[in-house]
Amino acid sequence: MAKNTKSRMILVLNGPNLNLLGTREPHLYGRETLAQIDRRLQATARAAGIALECLQSNHEGVLVDRVQKAKNDGVGFILLNPAGFTYSSIALRDALTAVQIPFIEVHLSNIHAREPWRAHSHFTAVAVGSVLGLGGRGYDLALQYAIAQLKQARP
What is the pLDDT of residue 87? Predict the structure, then answer.
C-alpha cells in the first residue's frame, strides 16, 4: 500500500457463518445480507475519503493472518464481528493485541441477552468499544467512530 494511505484504511473482519446473513435465523440477525452491509460501509468510507476492506472467513487462521498483515498494509482501525470466535479464539485476540491497531467489536444481536455462555467475549476487554444488538446498523455506528478517529489522528 502506498505510504500516503498509511493509517487511512479500515479493515472490517467477519467471522464464521456471517456469510449466511439474510437467511440464517433472521429473527436474530435480520434479513440484510453481509454483501448489503459491506456495500453500505464501502459507500460511507469512500464518501469520507477512507479506504475500506471487508473480509469474512469461516477459518480462524485466515482472520489471524489478515490481522497480522494489517499493520504493514496501513490499516488504522479494525471493525470486528468475531461471531462464533467470540467465545473461543484466543489466537485472534492475541493477533489483535500484537498489532496494536484499535478495533471495535460488533455483534448483530445482544450477546448478553442470549444464552449465558454467549455473555463472555474474549475481545471486549481489549477493544476500544463494542456495539451490540443493533443489527447491521451497528457496523455503521462503529464505522462512523473509526472514521472520526482516523480523521482526528491525521497530521
Answer: 85
For residue 115, what pLDDT is reported? Answer: 66
Task: Report whether pLDDT(119) > 80.
Answer: no
Only one residue has cell 499493520, namely: 71
- Residue 68: partners with Cβ closer than 8 Å, 6 or more residues away: 95, 98, 99
Which CATH superfamily does the domain covering 3-110+128-153 fall into? Dehydroquinase, class II (3.40.50.9100)
Catalytic residue numbers read 29, 107
**CB within 8 Å of 62: residues ≥ 6 apart:** 55
Closest CA to 81 of 18, 150, 9, 26: 18
pTM of the entire structure?
0.90
Instruction: Please tell me whether residue 111 adopts helix, strand or coil conformation.
Output: helix
